[in-house]
């Protein structure tokens, strides 16, 4: 071996040894949806580039929320990275439970993150979680069934039109439900949907004095409408259906319409998974006639680092990899532009290749239609569209959603559920000092 060859061999050995000494095994808690599962399948690229390995803990949405909340509040140290959202991030950041992401590399380009997402994942101007993808809610519908019903979906329909179309598309003998909507208990499952429906009917969680509003007619109107719609045109057992259950029904051709997260658009149009991939159209989430607010929510599934981790540097490397422009290019190269994580970066919507994706513009329009600072018709003291950004909300809304799911299951009336919701929310808010 020449002297030069020996030098390069020694240099390579030093480099590998350094990598081995600094390599970590990161434990990441995440939700069991398609985009997160896709990310797990591409993790070898991260390991190849950094030497770090990843241990995934993949959980159903409600279970994920419970596990990561317990771990971060107790500094349990079970996870080095957590998949969290816009509700938790600012609250946990303010409490010092998350590592600030204020020193990400210049090449990462924080300023490229859509302002709605960056603002929702920050506290006092500091970013505490990076969005893997961003979403709102919109209508996904079967174009063939809509045509067969003799109807045409407007770009911005009303709930009244949705009801008419859902009934017209329902065919119980063929196991086709006119509409599939979340009914599953949980503040981020069925609770998120019924809250934005209520917003679109002019309801609100609290008035300007933090007085609960479930005893107001707008809530009764919204809940009665939802229950009537689902009883007439929804699937059996909708009280236990969440995102994944409705996705499966839609992909099997058993839903005429589905109103849910914009991120689902890539799944229902993927011919490898969806039997109706070539028959899907998109529209903005509905509003109630005479009410300006639409049933749009605003959310990001994001990656944050709990303050208790001993692997902060490696965790930041993973977050930069998973939420970067390069990761988007990686997914596009492997699975096509329709399957890249949407709603997080401005540059994605400026990309001519992505602009060809049929749901790209409707997703962006839906995100821009949601206003977390003015989520309701009447003024409110809180920020958040499908949630109220106070620490007590998760517990209260989980209990309220359970009362509503009991209505959907036929176990109590709308009036009974709203009376219980009002009472338990008053008690919880008084106990919290509001």
TrEMBL record:
Q: Which keywords annotate this record? A: Signal
Q: Which residues form the signal peptide?
A: 1-20
Q: Where does the UniProt annotation locate this protein? A: Periplasm
Q: What GO CC annotations are associated with the protein? A: periplasmic space
Q: What is its main location?
A: periplasm
Sequence similarity: Belongs to the bacterial solute-binding protein 1 family.
Provide the protein name.
Sorbitol-binding protein /mannitol-binding protein
Organism, per UniProt?
Antarctobacter heliothermus
* Lineage of origin: Bacteria, Pseudomonadati, Pseudomonadota, Alphaproteobacteria, Rhodobacterales
């Amino acid at each position: 071996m020449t002297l030069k060859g020996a030098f390069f061999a020694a240099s390579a050995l030093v480099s590998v040894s350094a990598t081995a000494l600094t390599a970590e095994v990161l434990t990441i808690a995440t939700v069991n949806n398609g985009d997160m599962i896709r990310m797990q399948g591409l993790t070898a690229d991260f390991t190849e580039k950094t030497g770090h390995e990843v241990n995934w803990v993949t959980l159903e949405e409600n279970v994920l929320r419970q596990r990561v909340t317990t771990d971060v509040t107790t500094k349990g140290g079970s996870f080095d990275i957590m998949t969290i959202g816009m509700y938790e991030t600012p609250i946990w950041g303010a409490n010092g439970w998350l590592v600030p992401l204020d020193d990400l590399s210049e090449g990462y380009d924080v300023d490229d993150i859509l302002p709605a997402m960056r603002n929702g994942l920050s506290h006092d101007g500091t970013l505490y979680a990076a969005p893997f993808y961003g979403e709102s809610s919109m209508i996904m519908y079967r174009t063939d069934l809509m045509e067969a019903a003799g109807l045409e979906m407007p770009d911005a329909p009303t709930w009244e039109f949705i009801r008419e179309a859902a009934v017209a598309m329902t065919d119980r003998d063929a196991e086709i439900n006119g509409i599939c909507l979340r009914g599953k208990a949980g503040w981020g499952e069925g609770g998120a949907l019924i809250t934005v429906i209520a917003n679109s009917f002019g309801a609100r969680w609290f008035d300007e004095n933090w007085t609960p509003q479930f005893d107001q007619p707008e809530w009764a109107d919204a809940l009665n409408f939802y229950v009537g719609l689902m009883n007439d045109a929804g699937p059996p057992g909708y009280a236990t259906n969440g995102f994944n259950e409705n996705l499966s029904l839609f992909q099997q051709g058993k839903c005429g319409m589905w109103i849910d997260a914009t991120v689902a658009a890539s799944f229902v149009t993927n011919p490898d998974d969806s039997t109706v991939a070539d028959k899907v159209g998109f529209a903005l989430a509905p509003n109630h006639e005479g009410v300006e607010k639409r049933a749009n929510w605003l959310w990001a599934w994001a990656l944050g680092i709990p303050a208790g981790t001993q692997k902060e540097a490696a965790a930041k490397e993973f977050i930069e990899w998973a939420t970067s422009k390069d990761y988007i290019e990686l997914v596009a190269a492997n699975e096509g532009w329709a399957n890249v994580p949407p709603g997080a970066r401005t540059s994605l919507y400026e990309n001519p290749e992505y602009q060809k994706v049929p749901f790209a513009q409707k997703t962006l329009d839906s995100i821009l239609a949601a206003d977390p600072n003015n989520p309701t018709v009447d003024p409110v003291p809180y920020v958040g569209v499908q949630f109220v950004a106070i620490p007590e909300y998760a517990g209260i809304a989980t209990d309220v959603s359970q009362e509503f799911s009991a209505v959907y299951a036929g176990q109590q009336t709308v009036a009974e559920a709203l009376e219980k919701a009002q009472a338990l929310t008053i008690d919880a808010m008084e106990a919290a000092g509001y």
